[in-house]
Every structure is written in structure tokens, then in C-alpha cells.
């Protein structure tokens, strides 16, 4: 295609030849033209990095609000709402026993919320590998609430019951 024909086609498409050259993928102009990442998405990316490193101190100090609420769906020993940093970290420690990993696939901000879609799987023992969605509510650059949604709740319930056994009834009840 001749340069005049190519230029005419680009003009018809609303792109000037100079504009196309400046916004080539990987160019500095293309990087500058990309929208900046929302700060709440950046926070959640940092959270996932700390989680991947097993850095519970970073989660406590940099990511979790003191009054965090973390809701886990299902009918299994780890299900329910954890309130406060200590309960959430205790839950994460239990996940660590099963070698849980998470690989974010998509993060989308909407006001104070970040919606996350990720692959979550166990490594010790293997046996659970499903897609999860989380809704993170952010306040003052901290996670104040997280609500989990499992793509296959029945598989999650079965796995958690198999791995996290409850103590016998006399030992299961709290002293009065």
C-alpha cells in the first residue's frame, strides 16, 4: 500500500500517521496515554503480593483496617465473618496450613470498592482449584471489608470439611 493511500485510510479512521507512530504499543507515548491505575487497585495488587509472600505483618500494618470484616461463604469450619485484624489473620494462618495460593485475573475499581476475580488453589493438600470473586471495600487506603464468592461453593465446602476437622463436642465448646 502506498504511503498516500495508507495516510488516507488512517485519516478516514480518525488516526493521523504521526499519531499512529507515536502511540505504537510499547512506546513512551503509549505508556503515557494509558490511564493511571486506580489507587485502590494498586492497594489490592500490593495486598496480593504480601499474601503471596506469606507476609502477615505487612497485611496487618499496611493493608488491613483495624475494624476489618472478612466474610467467607459456605457451610464449613472456616466459613463466616471474621471481625478485626486478629481474626482475619488467624483465618489466613489456617489457609496457609493448606498452602493456599491466589493468582489475580482481573481487578476493577468502582468508588470505594475493588472487584477482584482470581484463581485460588490449595497445595498441601492439593484438591481445591477454583475461581473466586472478592469485593474489597477500601477506606483511608486500607481494606475495611472483603466479601468472598466461590465459583463452586460445593467443592469449597467439601475441601474445607476434609482438611479442617472440628474437635469432638466437649472440646469444641467454649468454656462458660
Automatic annotation (TrEMBL):
Taxonomic source organism: Nonomuraea jiangxiensis
Name assigned to this protein: SnoaL-like domain-containing protein
Region forming the signal peptide: 1-32
Alphabetically ordered keywords of this record: Signal
Record-linked Pfam families: SnoaL_2
Alphabetized SUPFAM superfamilies for the sequence: NTF2-like
Domain of life: Bacteria
UniProt entry tagged with the keyword Signal: yes
Coiled-coil segments on the chain, per record: none
Residues covered by the SnoaL-like domain: 44-145
Amino acid at each position: 500500500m502506498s504511503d498516500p493511500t495508507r495516510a488516507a485510510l488512517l485519516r478516514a479512521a480518525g488516526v493521523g500517521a504521526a499519531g499512529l507512530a507515536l502511540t505504537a504499543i510499547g512506546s513512551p507515548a503509549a505508556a503515557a496515554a494509558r490511564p493511571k491505575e486506580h489507587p485502590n487497585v494498586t492497594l489490592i495488587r500490593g495486598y496480593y503480593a504480601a499474601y503471596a509472600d506469606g507476609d502477615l505483618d505487612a497485611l496487618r500494618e499496611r493493608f488491613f483496617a483495624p475494624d476489618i470484616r472478612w466474610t467467607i461463604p459456605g457451610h464449613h469450619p472456616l466459613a463466616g465473618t471474621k471481625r478485626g485484624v486478629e481474626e482475619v489473620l488467624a483465618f489466613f494462618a489456617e489457609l496457609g496450613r493448606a498452602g493456599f495460593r491466589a493468582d489475580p485475573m482481573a481487578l476493577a475499581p468502582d468508588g470505594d470498592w475493588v472487584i477482584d476475580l482470581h484463581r485460588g488453589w490449595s497445595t498441601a493438600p492439593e484438591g481445591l482449584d477454583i475461581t473466586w470473586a472478592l469485593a474489597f471495600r477500601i477506606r483511608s487506603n486500607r481494606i475495611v471489608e472483603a466479601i468472598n464468592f466461590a465459583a463452586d461453593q460445593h467443592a469449597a465446602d467439601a475441601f474445607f470439611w476434609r482438611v479442617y476437622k472440628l474437635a469432638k463436642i466437649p472440646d469444641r465448646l467454649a468454656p462458660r
